Prior knowledge:
This protein has 613 residues and is α/β, with parallel strands linked by helices. It has helices at 17-31, 41-46, 51-62, 76-84, 91-95, 111-121, 134-139, 225-241, 258-271, 331-343, 389-392, 397-423, 439-443, 445-448, 471-481, 491-494, 509-519, 526-530, 535-539, 543-554, 560-579, 592-612; strands at 149-157, 175-183, 187-200, 206-215, 217-219, 245-252, 279-289, 292-295, 309-312, 318-321, 326-328, 347-348, 356-357, 360-369, 375-382, 456-464.
Amino acid sequence: MEILAPITPITNTNISDDSWRETFIEYYTTNAPQKVSMVNEKMMARWSGKYEILMKNLIEKYGPLGAPIDQPQVSRSSRSKLAAAPRRFTPAARAFAAPGKKSAPSINQHSSKFTALISAATPTLPPRDSNLNVVESKASNSQNGLETSTFTVCTRVRPLLGPELTAGNECYASVVPGRRTAQEGGCNYTEELLLHTPTVSIRGNAKLDTLSQDFDYVFGPDSTNEEIYDLACAPLVKRALNGQVGVIVAYGQTGSGKTHTMNGILDILSTSAIFSDLTDITFSYMEMLGREIKDCLPDAGNGTPKGIQIGEGLNGAVLIRNMKTHMVHDAAQLGTLIQRASATRATAVTAKNETSSRSHGVAILKVKNKKTSVEGTLYVIDLAGSESAKDSKDHDKNRMKETKEINSSLMVLKDCIRARTNAAGVGNNGIHVPYRSNKLTLLMKDVFDIGCSRLCSTVVIANCSPLVSDISHTKNTVKYAAPLRVAVASADRQKNLELDVFDPALWNNVKMISWVNDVAAGKIDAKLFVNSLTGVQFCALPENEFYARAQAQLGDEEGMVEIAKTLYLGMWTLIVDAKTRKRRPDGSIITPKQEEEERKRTEEKRVERARVW
């Protein structure tokens, strides 16, 4: 028998609950597969803060990982005696027992009461403000300079489907949209999601245990794909058309509507006004099954296509090999490619979904300006369905391996998003973003690399099942997605920080005009070029806009392109420098000269210690 490396008690308190959950699932799957269903919310809550002790106890009972200890078997006669032993119930429990049976109080007996309580707790929501645009407002938040990579986190609750409408006591909705709030004239806009867990007290009273969680957008069962596209996705398409990066990611439990949402978005995209004579548009689609990456749109008749390889070039650019890129000229051609790609994705029957996506589907739309050669990118990513221990308990070895790889890649994605959001704060440049840990996050390098020289906007859509029977997994989905809304440092936290006079996003209009005039060496009218924009507004301009403004003054004369490119790259050099500027704990800036002096003092101390020894 192959003995794997033993799991030793872990003393790092920074390990997340989700990582511990994965560790316990892996251990039980290997050493005690019949017990894997024990890894649930109740167990995690009971042992919270004491996971090292639990792991030590498991190793003592079941052996090191990969070397299980045989457990004593209970004889059939003993099991019969246990089954025949009379069960005792409290008077309260007996009052709720079904006729002729002795059972504990059941929430199913109060489904009508719970439905009424949930209906009473669900607010009536007015229409959203037609001018609301959370995605764009995040990029223009200048508390920490220009937010070069922003994350908008939404959730969508699917409606009850055919069989669920008539299935009985366990099939009613307990996940509903809550209130919407806006502060400071529309800033810090949030929408609330309410998760109602039915409980029955020992006295037999029905009540709700409600969890409230804030998101940027909450789309209820009545929402449509068109509504989601207009609010959350259209700004990202605009990003791609302007030579920037937009990413749409759908996450959630298998069977919660991810693929329906993303296919709907792609269908709307194919019929939108993205085609023009000024741009070239290409489309490609890949699926990631663990470490295997497959092209869903290979050339026909070329035999078995090679697996796609994703890596980095010497200049840091992401390279994709063995993937076919299709030139698209109209909506009909794009729609045909989307349907063909969707039909080839890997699916399998699971406990929750007969056509569960077992891979991450990644659609890549690139838009290249024919005149300036500036290329924007839109990623539409349908993540594989996450599964709880309850959903995966009947999986075979291969399906369990798929589940493990899916959950592992989802954890890496979450870590990257949270780290990148935290790194956006002033003085937080020491935070590491582990985007190279997974091919999916490496593909999205522009989103996670703080040195990227163009704006990136990401929208995460957490898809949720409304069913009360799925409330435990829905809570896990919310716990995964909601923390991705990590806010950058607030104004109160920033008030003691030294102002970075070299950050162009913090300049006023006069300072920005002066800088443009100096860089362009007076070859253009700087005041006309900047117009009335402030620093943060000017920094948010796409690269194509720099070419358009330079052309408006210089026409197509030689040197126009060079001036526009010099201004754009010069500005982004200052932006990235400001984002990575080192600071002391008190918020003061460490200048390059001071940093060099500190390095010399450290080196002198090291030499002196070496001399003493």
